[in-house]
């Protein structure tokens, strides 16, 4: 992580807005669809160290965050299983998932990429089809992340 010093609050805010504009200009088509969808959504975003963050995003808030590229809702991960209300920029979102897959992720303790990769390799689960959606999602994530 790097830190930048600014001469003023205004300079910091101008830099922040420039970075947000750049993120929005470089969105993938699927990220634009997620940003522009005004229905309730379930999404998976990437965090540090192969951790996934699962978002339950209700209809857009009235703060205009969606237009700026931010998704506001409850975010869950194996770091914070009870969830936290907040915003994430859609540039971090890998894909949307069906509600059923979201609930399965909850049951599994919000698995990260390593768990999904291991499940895909081993196929040891007593009901391999249960993980199909999340495993397929992990393959999308792996190809996105390299």
Notes on the structure:
40% of the residues lie in helices and 20% in strands. With 146 residues, the chain is α+β, with helices and mostly antiparallel strands. It has helices at 9-25, 29-36, 99-107, 113-122, 132-145; strands at 41-46, 52-57, 70-76, 84-89, 93-96. The mean pLDDT is 80. The chain contains five helices and five strands. Strands 4-3-2-1-5 form a five-stranded antiparallel β-sheet, sandwiched between helices. It has one domain (29-145).
Give a short summary of the structure:
The protein has 146 residues and is of the alpha+beta class.
Write the layout of secondary structure elements.
Elements: H1 9-25, H2 29-36, E1 41-46, E2 52-57, E3 70-76, E4 84-89, E5 93-96, H3 99-107, H4 113-122, H5 132-145
Antiparallel strand pairs: 1-2, 1-5, 2-3, 3-4
Helix pairs in contact: 4-5
- The topology string of helices and strands comes to HHEEEEEHHH
Q: Which bin fits the share of residues in helices?
A: 25-40%
Distance between the termini: 21 Å
Please tell me the total number of domains. Answer: 1
Low-confidence stretches: none
Q: How are strands sequenced across the largest beta sheet?
A: 4-3-2-1-5
Look at the helices and sheets and give the structural class: alpha+beta
The biggest sheet amounts to: 5 strands, antiparallel
